[in-house]
Amino acid sequence: MKELYCVIGNPIAHSLSPVMHTALLEQNQLNASYVPFLIEKQDFKIAIEGMKALGISGFNVTSPFKEDILPFLDALDPEAKACGAVNTVVATNGRWTGYNTDGVGYLQGLESIRKITETDQILILGAGGASKAIFHALMHHTNAKVTVANRTLKKAVKMVAGTAHKALSLAEAESQLADFTIVIQTTSSGLTKENAALPIRLHDVTAGTIISDIIYNPAETPFLKEAKARGAITQNGLPMFINQAAIAFELWTGIKADRALMRNIVLKQIGGK
Length: 273
Ligand code: ATR
Known about the structure:
It holds the Pfam family SDH_C. The chain is about 35% helix and about 20% strand. With about 270 residues, it is an alpha/beta fold.
């Protein structure tokens, strides 16, 4: 019987997950489809129960439902548990397990530049959902020392509580910038005209520092442009986006996802090279 995968969210029309996953399913000649479903907040429970009754094989969860899905799951992987958020669900004989592939997806991209070691001092700017996923992946899978800096300091403090990692204000992070080997920009500042300022100034960045931004469209945010001009090694959010989807596909099918194919498809959709 044909299998069904989907992504649920609101909004969902601009999601690139359907094109990426459809290409992977076709490439591997799997008898399955992947479709987007727009769900209204008030219909969430009935929609999820419907998906369960129909025997969906797996699905992605995007904003604003990454936390709402938790009560419907039978099990959680350690990453999702630590984040309190799920972006991928795997159904096995009707049993649903939640995963969060954002953090490990990010880490796979970062480690395509170089291996992260215990000598790395990593600064994460922002303390929202994406930051949390990246923080937990770094904590679980590397020996690096991590500092989380946020505009609202108490959110960063809460995130690192009970760990050996540190929290700072954005002003403190800015003045200590030279101490970090890797900087990860996860805030929404600099994204729109209304929110145009960079989260921190980059005067003290040293050449050779890895500076990444989780945004992939535009391919070069003002933050990355400034970092590059100061001699940093830069990476945008495209590897994270591709890898989080690739890991989801691998969890569902057990087949290695062709990341080059996924990348080409996304670049074609967003008009990049
Ligand atoms: P996501 O799930 O994508 O990580 P989010 O949970 O809405 O998004 O988090 C947005 C992050 O961007 C937060 O860390 C937010 O800081 P606050 O916790 O202080 O709100 C940060 N952010 C948004 N606008 C910002 C700005 N102008 N300057 C600095 N940080 C900003």
